[in-house]
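Because discrete structure vocabularies remain unfamiliar, it helps to consider an illustrative case, giving the amino acid sequence and backbone structure tokens:
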Amino acid sequence: MRRIFFALTCLCLVLPLPLGAAQKPDSLETARRELKTRLSTLVDQRNQLTRTIEAIHLEINSLKIRRIRARARINELKALALKSSGRLEDLRREAAELQPSLLKMREIYGERLRAMYLHGPDTGLAIWAGANSFHDALTRSQALARLAADSREKLQKIKIRQKKYEKLKTSLAFKQNEFLEYIKDQQETEKTLKEMEQKNGGLLNNLEAQGKKLSENINTLNQAQARLVRTLAMVKTLPPEQKRGKILVPPIKGVVAAKGNLSPPVEGAPTNLNLPEKHGIFIKARPGSLVRSPWWGKVAYAGNLAGYGKVIVLDHGQRVHTVLACLGNLSVDKGQNVKAGSVVGQVGGTALVYLEVRKGAKPVNPLKWLRLGS
């Protein structure tokens, strides 16, 4: 339990602030990477909470199983104790009924023994002397022997019954001791379970509340991460025959044919060319520098976007869009036509311009489209 409480304390200490309370990142790529890290951290924390809750439930269930088994054993011992008590009462009753016969038999046996040994070693001679005949002497001798044997037999039976009684009494005492031990164990288990239920009642509620909060934070971060993608997905590309005359296009070739020759939006150097997934790049430029359209097209979106600052989305036709984010000022409005090199905004205080190229609403490597370094 101490390990569980320690883990919970650590989780409480590392819970992140809501997205809106975080400092504004210096760049969009930094924000994305931070967002991904925080999402992974939140998911790990939620999984840890889930494992902790499951461990507590398992411990409580284990105690409940012990309590059920202890109660079953108690009932079994009660039945055995009741059966043993009944048998013990039967033996006591038999012993009580046998006691008068035993006393009488001992009295008779004593008298016979005294009569037999009245003359000591000469008992046999006394019998022969007092007998009327040989047959009479033999009859008297055999009668005394039978009497002694019968008395011994009855005494032996009483002793056997007494031994059985003592044995059953010992067995009953052992069962009663075992019964008391299980009663004690049951009481300790019930006490422990009650304490755990009291301690873990509030703890489980707190864990569930934290898990709910983590899920909300994860959903919030997922929504922020997907907001730009959803915005671009909502931009509908018009068929080529409908957008001629509405979008300024070069007279001979379209944007796909110009791949690799699009003008960079601002004078500067890319800062994240070695990233494993180049969904977008940052170009470092002086604050206030003019940001230009890399190709002919139409402004599909111009405005603020949470986490990205001021953003411009340009539709170049042929399902190709460029995204310019982290701008300081915007110089165009939604629906406005632009041509290659047209000013669309200015570099902001971050001295970075985020550039992303999308083909069919999916990000592609901008380095293969732009004429960087020119």
Observations:
- The mean pLDDT is 72.
